[in-house]
Amino acid sequence: MSDEVWFNMWQRRERAYRELASGNILYWYESQTERVVWKTRVLDVDSFPYSHKDDALNRLEERFGEIDPSQPYYVDAPSSGYCLGFRVEALERLNIPKPSSRKFRRSGWLPGDDKLFHEWLSKSEIPLVLVENEATEGGHYDDWKDVTGERYHFPNQYRNKVVSGRPFVYYRGVRRRAGKSGTPEYFGVGRIGEVWKDLDMPADAPKSRQKWFCNIQDYEPFQEPVLAKIDGEYVEKIPSNHWGIGVRETPREIFERILQLAGMNAEELNPGVLDIPDMPGIDEVIPSAIPDGSSLLVQQSQKAGGGNGSGGRRLSRYSKAIGDRAEEIVVRFLEENLSSGESRSVRWVAQEGEKPGWDIEYRNKDELVIAVEVKGTGGSSFPNIELTAGEWKAAKELRERYALFLVANCRSREPSIQKIWDPVRLYESGHLNATPMTWRIELCSD
Asked: What is the distance between the alpha carbons of residues 24 and 20, in angstroms, rounded to a whole number?
């Protein structure tokens, strides 16, 4: 961020042209990941009208330094208009889902004095307790479509509390499945992702009966549940009638204490900061294909878990960094293992910003496009993988020319690769299950 020259060129004067000044705080949005990724401070700014693009480029370079005139934004910019150039210093690397209620400017940033954004940001830092009971009294509320660690289903009364970016802990009360009882406890931690309305509700349903969903991100199940009552004292200091509230706020110190009791470091789980793990340089990495007959996609054991869902998945806070590394590993693997002609045709289309339904492509000896969709994990295996609707559609259209490359141990020097050709054929033959959420792919039971 700090080394870049940032500029905008418009045909008409935009609001930012008049308002941006040195010392301003800017929050930056990344459209590919749909996250707020940087907090920066403006160091220097210059705004001016221009009659010719070359004149604008010369003035920007005199003030800020060299700029590449071949970059698409400059090439496509208006031939005359208004230019805003500036430099920033990076203050903090962030990883916060963009609030669905707030639009960022086309420039990709939002000023730090934006009142609505600040209200959302301050609210997103207050932790929640999400109640997810295995059973409810009389079964009257057992129709909630929760999936532990994946999504949470809630009534309209909690809509203002369930905000993208808020950290939370899961809690379940005494009622368990099959009429059994258990001890009230906290059993996992995560962060609220995207929030959307339950479209199965009638369009004319009164507001009080509307329901909502939210994605769960960065889910970490506790190795051992944390009891709600320890040495005769409740961890949460709340009135007795608040235990039945489905979504409740909790002070930061209580949230952190629950994590500490679970053996977790609260600072490492700060939802606003992405500390990307150290990984060896790509030149140090030696990927290898796993032997025939083995698989990185392992059958998922059936575990009892909290909530009405079917077990949880763990979404890594480093998912984008690991995904990018997995793609980089596969590009290297293909370039080293394909024939010379095929190797020269390898394209990392995802890095170029294209989304055809796969990440990498190359042309075989018949000049046909071979599509490669990459899935990566820092672990040694996959309990399942997920495909978007676009990826599944591409797999159905290309069939034997579409491959899934699974990359395990992405952060190591010796990652493992499994190639799964034509996943649609394997699904149709009963070797894979596919659950339409995004598409969840897992091995069938024998």
From this structure: 7
Give the CATH architecture of domain 128-269. Answer: Roll (3.10)
Tens digit of each residue's pLDDT (9 = 90 or more) over 249-287: 999 899 999 998 988 765 555 544 444 456 788 888 999
The answer to whether 9 and 82 have CB atoms below 8 angstroms apart is: yes
Reported CATH class of domain 282-443 = alpha beta
Domain limits, the chain: 6-114, 128-269, 282-443
DSSP 3-state percent helix, strand, coil across the chain (nearest 5): 25, 35, 45
* Residue linked to tokens 């054929």: 425
How big is the CA angle at 340 (ends 338 and 343), to the nearest 5 degrees?
A: 55
Q: What are residue 376's DSSP bridge partners?
A: 407
pTM of the model: 0.45
Element (H, E) at 374: strand 369-376
DSSP character string of 60-94: HHHHH----TTSHHHHHS-SSEEEEEEEEEEEEEE
> Exposed, middle or buried, 25 (CB in 10 Å: 0-12/13-18/19+)?
middle
Secondary structure (DSSP) of 227-279 = ESEETTEESS---GGGTT-SEEE--HHHHHHHHHHTT--GGGG-TTB--PPP-
